Amino acid sequence: MIEQWGKLTNDDFDVIDGKREQFLGKLQERQGIARDALTLPQPTHGVPGQLRVALTFDDGPRPGYTEPILSLLAQHNAKATFLVTGIMSERYPDLLRQIDAAGHEIGSHTYNHFRLNTLSEHQQIAEMVRAKVAIDGVLGKSTPRLMRPPGGHFNPQIRDMLAAVGYWPVFWTINCGAYASMPQHDAAAAIMAKMEDGAILLLHNGPDNTLDLLPALMHRLRVAGYKMVTASEIVAGAEVVSNGGPTPIEIEPYATP
Ligand SMILES: [Zn+2]
Prior knowledge:
By secondary structure, the protein is an alpha/beta fold. It has helices spanning 2-6, 10-14, 20-31, 66-75, 86-91, 93-101, 121-139, 156-164, 184-193, 210-223, 231-235; strands spanning 51-58, 81-84, 105-108, 146-147, 168-169, 174-175, 199-204, 226-229.
């Protein structure tokens, strides 16, 4: 599959304008996705007797941040989801491979981290395809199926575009960055007060409060009996956003270097 994506050329992008359907059909054919398979399934309702939470880390990989996050996840025997950009994956391929080798899930966060709602559909598709080519190129396999729009900026047209190129959007139920002004233990307690089975936590693989918060938060999650799993395990193919999920909000903690 990666070979198929790798064959995309600028000529492919040039035909998007005015030939949208043909281009999307070509992408789907290359990705081996039938149109019927793009119908988004219903959300699941948890696993009886289990409390599950997904830790999701946006914007990486990034030296100085990815390594301690991986170390903490290993200490707690936790699996997580990393929504990475294509540009950072190309810059730090070894870190991306480390995330993958540790068994965590890797999703797309676009190539450049532009706000998708400010781009033409042509540019949106290019952001998705180039991210996939970059991530798959580093890992040597076809990887991301989940996609988190930068800053959570989203609309029905972006949803349709993602479905056409074979991605499920994934948002979050708790934005941990909202507690950045609190001491770590207070922040962890405030987040735990909102915790519920199936929660998806927005954290960052970069310079925000994630690294300060994570040890206290993970400790509390374990004590409370939560199993830390990937976002895919929680959404199980569901389209979170259209099923009463969280409303996308503005989050731009820092610019990708
Ligand atoms: Zn981001």
